[in-house]
Design a protein that fits this description.
The protein contains nine helices and ten strands. By secondary structure, the protein is an alpha/beta fold.
Length: 306
Amino acid sequence: MKQRIIYMQMCFLLCLMLIHPVSAGQKLVIELDPGHGGYDGGATAEWFGDTVYEKKLNLAIAKYLKEELESYEGVEVKMTRTDDTYVSLDARTDKVEKDEADVMISLHNNASGAISDYDNGCTVLTSHGRYKEKLAQEGMKLGSQILEELSSVGPENQGILQRTSETGTTYKNGELADYYHIIKKGVEGDYTAIIVEHAFVDHGVDYKQYLRTDGALKRLAVADAKGIARYYGLHKKGESAMEPLVNVKEKITLVSNSNRTGSQISYETFYKTESDADTEGGYSGEQEKGIFSTLKSLWKRFLGGN
């Protein structure tokens, strides 16, 4: 039993190394993308006699997030904009390639509309996975960790949202492309790209509790950083590496048009533990034997185990 637990732990660590190939001494390059900017104010709302612009909230969160991420070892953070200037979508994704970033995280705040059936809370947008399924899965895993951390500081977790092209644009395999430029370019460029919607600008509770003050915006940024750190196994100096939250069940909404008709809703559990996998399909007995056999060989070769 003890050996089985050790093998499972090794399996978990091995999977992390295979999924997140950032070797020792190599920096993880993260491109933060504060949405909107300049003449593009993004979502707006009137609160207490002032107009609140999403673009300012996004930039504030990005700056706090950059500061927090840089407190982790082996991380380099780039930004698509650092002030209130307009940056085109193409320029944003071009910068990801120029910076040779491993992941692009676009930072936004939401507003009520026809796309979703909720008007508050946090959401992460990812690829639908009909092309480069593994890459899409990684985006969802990253999103699951960020959502759990965000919801722990208050915003309601509304799950993962995916959206297909409404103009018939397709990927090379003939499947409809992702609707959002940031995500589509990530898929085509073979890097993880997600969009994080932190809260609703036009929802009273969301704005007052999560967006109104610098302290509230910083709490959102720190939550983002923890989710990112959990996914990539990052650690601060003198601390242990963050581990992913396990058995995280997320609602996944696939939107096919702007008025939400025909949207598909499903649920997926990420980072299943052994017991959870047993009850939901998991590995077959033969697959499990193969894994343990491989790990046993590795154990003997590298650690001198019996």
